């Protein structure tokens, strides 16, 4: 059975929408998303910056496990910076 968790996380690492997860900001531009239910295998994770300023800002999933993942968000110039992001994890 496929399970999906989706959400929206603000710049401070606080969930704004979705259920089934917790989130926190670790340092500028880096966030940890912990899933309330453990996936039986690694999920597929897709992330996106909310309200990108110029279309070149990014949100990238890193360190994916069956219990959650980390996200790094960036500006178009490249450095990690605090950005709102949305995600879906499916597995």
Unreliable sequence segments = none
How many separate domains?
1
* Coarse shape: elongated
Q: What distance lies between the first and last C-alpha atoms, to the nearest angstrom?
A: 8 Å
Mean pLDDT: 93
Q: What's the total count of β strands?
A: 8
How large is the count of helical segments?
Answer: 0
Q: Bin the helical content.
A: under 10%
Q: What's the arrangement of secondary structure elements?
A:
Layout: E1 4-9, E2 15-18, E3 21-27, E4 30-35, E5 44-49, E6 58-65, E7 68-74, E8 85-90
Antiparallel strand pairs: 1-2, 1-8, 3-4, 4-7, 5-8, 6-7
Entry summary:
The protein has strands spanning 4-9, 15-18, 21-27, 30-35, 44-49, 58-65, 68-74, 85-90.
Tell me what the structure shows.
This protein is mainly β. The protein has one domain: Immunoglobulin-like (Sandwich). The protein has no helices and eight strands. It starts with a strand and ends with a strand. The model has no long low-confidence stretch (mean pLDDT 93).
Key phrases:
91 residues; 0% helix; Immunoglobulin-like; 4-stranded antiparallel beta sheet; mainly beta
